Amino acid sequence: MEEIYAYVNSNFDVNYITSLMEDIKTAAGFIAFSILVALFLGMVWMVVMKMCAAVITWLTIILVQLLIVALTYLLYSMGTARQTEIENYPADVEKPINYTLYVSYGFMVICGIMFCAIICMYNKIRIVIAIMETSADFVTEVCTVMLVPPIMMILTMIWSMVWIFLAVYVYSNG
């Protein structure tokens, strides 16, 4: 055991690790409060999703599509302005390639593909919305399911700490 202590002491900054643990101990109340707030906000989000899943989903899809259209328009207008500048260069000067215009063409293709994908997947999107509403119903009715991720995280952290300790022990014994 003394070999492990000597190995850890010589290869790791134990004072730094100790200060980290003390900081965690100092902030334990705030961490617990944050966990409770996160659980509460998760439940509120589930209630909102139960009531507004369709609106949130379609609004997100429409806004993403509009943002891509706006970015495409911006790139195209910048590209055409740059192309006008390039065309006004003197004849003896080498003219640069207008990559902005080509990128805008690429975004036009992406915008068209995304629009076609939305239209083709309309029924699947409706099914997904129904699934989201059903899962929100389940989570709001069975509140303990919200505790599964934090409990699994704690168990995974404990398992990792045990594994690291055992790995250091095995490594130190050669």
Question: What does the model show?
Answer:
The chain is mainly α and 174 residues long. The chain has one domain (2-173). Helix content is 87%, strand content 0%. It contains six helices and no strands. It has helices at 2-11, 14-26, 28-87, 99-120, 122-141, 148-173. α1 (2-11) crosses α6, α3 (28-87) packs across α4 and α3 (28-87) runs antiparallel to α5. The longest helix has 60 residues, at 28-87. The chain is flat and about 80 Å long. The two termini are 13 Å apart.
Total separate domains: 1
Number of strands: 0
Query: What proportion strand?
Result: under 5%
Helix content: over 70%
Structural class by SSE content: mainly alpha
Distance between the termini: 13 Å
Rough shape?
flat
Order of helices and strands: HHHHHH
> What Rg do the Cα atoms give?
28 Å
Regions with little confidence, pLDDT below 50 for 5+ residues? none
Number of helices: 6
Largest sheet: none
Average residue pLDDT: 87
Quick description:
The protein has 174 residues and is mostly helical. Helices cover 87% and strands 0% of the residues.
Keyword list:
174 residues; 6 helices
Write the layout of secondary structure elements.
Elements (H helix, E strand, L loop, with lengths): L1 H10 L2 H13 L1 H60 L11 H22 L1 H20 L6 H26 L1
Helix pairs in contact: 1-6, 3-4, 3-5
